[in-house]
Design a protein that fits this description.
The complex is a heterodimer of chains A (117) and B (110). Chain A has strands spanning 4-7, 10-13, 19-25, 31-37, 43-49, 56-57, 65-68, 74-78, 87-94, 107-108, 112-116. Chain A is built from no helices and 11 strands. Chain A has 117 residues and is an all-beta fold. Chain B is mainly β and 110 residues long. In chain B, 0% of the residues lie in helices and 47% in strands. Classes of the chains: A mainly beta (117), B mainly beta (110). The interface between A and B is medium-sized, with 33 and 27 residues.
């Protein structure tokens, strides 16, 4: 049981290049999330997917697109990378479900460190 | 969803209890309190959550005031490895818009 797996762990891009961050979870969770964390700052929600087939914007969605490929996988795409997108990106998932607080407990991946030159 | 207020930073002596406060004065009746921590640049780690009763697990205790307007996370015997940023989040269980604030940076000192 690997939990939440993110790839790649490190990536360096040039301004204008595109790339996709991959995230997969093996916990049969319904909901998945993408966060970014800039140096010395807290986590900011980019996008989330409450369930397979749905996605919603978070606090800072501009410059990103997401795809909930299936229940396990949730990818984050940068179409034209900018230096302001240099950050550590975290994927997370929650069980979802009804009636109990545990449905909203986040499990995080180890992060993907992206540098845009 | 209710906003939370946490101190920016706190220190604690190794072996002593660390008490981390969180104010959530606008909390509604169906909102849970969740605590996470982030050690250095690792992914955040879930610690504990509660609705209105006090909760305890192997990592920590969560004390929620009777009016539910504030809570305290207690690490009973802090170690150097507990040095981290601690986040308090208030959410309805089925609200997927899970946003984090700035958290409290806890430094455990020898």
């Amino acid at each position: 049981n690997a939990g939440v797996t993110q790839t790649p762990k490190f990536q360096v891009l040039k301004t204008g290049q595109s790339m996709t961050l991959q995230c997969a979870q093996d916990m049969n969770h319904n909901s998945m999330y993408w966060y970014r964390q800039d140096p010395g700052m807290g986590l900011r929600l980019i996008y989330y997917s409450a369930s397979e087939g749905t996605t919603d914007k978070g606090e800072v969605p501009n410059g990103y697109n997401v795809s909930r490929l299936n229940k396990r996988e949730f990818s984050l795409r940068l179409e034209s990378a900018a230096p302001s997108q240099t950050s550590v990106y975290f994927c997370a998932s929650t069980p979802g479900g009804t009636g109990v607080g545990g449905a909203n407990v986040l499990t995080f991946g180890a992060g993907s460190r992206l540098t845009v030159l | 969803d209710a906003k939370t207020t946490q101190p920016t930073s706190m220190d604690c002596a190794e072996g002593r209890a660390a008490n981390l406060p969180c104010n959530h004065s606008t909390i509604s009746g169906n909102e849970y309190v969740y605590w996470y921590r982030q050690i250095h640049s690792q992914g955040p780690q879930y610690i504990i959550h509660g609705l209105k009763n006090n909760e305890t697990n192997e990592m920590a205790s969560l004390i929620i005031t009777e009016d539910r307007k504030s809570s305290t996370l207690i690490l009973p015997h802090a170690t150097l490895r507990d040095t981290a940023v601690y986040y308090c989040i208030v959410r309805v269980y089925n609200n997927n818009d899970m946003r984090f604030g700035a958290g409290t940076r806890l430094t455990v000192k020898p």
